[in-house]
């Protein structure tokens, strides 16, 4: 089997305190195997970009690339840029790792194993397969996650334990088949791209993932979480309408 070209995409926003920790916690075996580890700072107003750039030059890490968006692209928009970069670089696998260390970099080998073994096209680290409350997930987030995942499974005829994990690894060749640039720039990008994978008949796998909510993690507040939940429900409604042949409401993002 040919060796897979692996990229680690560290998505970062206001992560000056945690970015270096996120990089250093990546297992050495993954650092050695990866073709590139690249950070895209989404126009933070702290020193995230300069912290990454200074670390790269201090330790002369050639395969660590540091980029900064000139304007804030939002969570979904920044992901699009990261995946476009992986496609342009001709990578086979891209891992999305959050720069606030909410997800454990030590688990990257488990995350990419199904892709290396050609058992999946998208692998998601599920906190719901572990003990999210013991990991510090607020009870209201836990309940919201469970409810939305239940709704999504019903609407999409799936049986996933969690739709809302931001710790993912993608087959880049699968990403190339999808019009993911048509998706939202907001947080529910993660749901919309799962729908695209399902529409294309691509393989999705979950692995258990520990939960960590600490003071250094980027926290989404209650109001923004409620907005996120409504956007998820709106997405499901739009998708179901899109699937009714007699209706004229169609969206390009689901024509895969």
Q: How are strands sequenced across the largest beta sheet?
A: 3-2-1-4-6-5-7
Q: Could you give the distance between the termini?
A: 29 Å
Radius of gyration: 18 Å
Largest sheet: 7 strands, mixed
Question: What topology does this entry show?
Answer:
Elements: E1 6-12, H1 19-24, H2 28-33, E2 34-41, H3 48-58, E3 64-68, H4 74-88, E4 93-98, H5 108-116, E5 122-126, H6 139-156, E6 168-171, H7 172-175, H8 189-199, E7 204-208, H9 222-242
Parallel strand pairs: 1-2, 1-4, 2-3, 5-7
Antiparallel strand pairs: 4-6, 5-6
Helix pairs in contact: 6-9
Walk me through the structure.
The structure is a single chain. The protein is an alpha/beta fold and 256 residues long. Helix content is 39%, strand content 16%. The protein contains 9 helices and 7 strands; from the N terminus they run βααβαβαβαβαβααβα. The chain has helices at 19-24, 28-33, 48-58, 74-88, 108-116, 139-156, 172-175, 189-199, 222-242; strands at 6-12, 34-41, 64-68, 93-98, 122-126, 168-171, 204-208. A 7-stranded mixed sheet has the order 3-2-1-4-6-5-7, with helices on both faces. Strand 2 (34-41), helix 3 and strand 3 (64-68) form a beta-alpha-beta unit. The longest helix has 21 residues, at 222-242. The chain is globular and about 60 Å long. It starts with 5 loop residues before the first strand and ends in a 14-residue tail after the last helix. The mean pLDDT is 94.
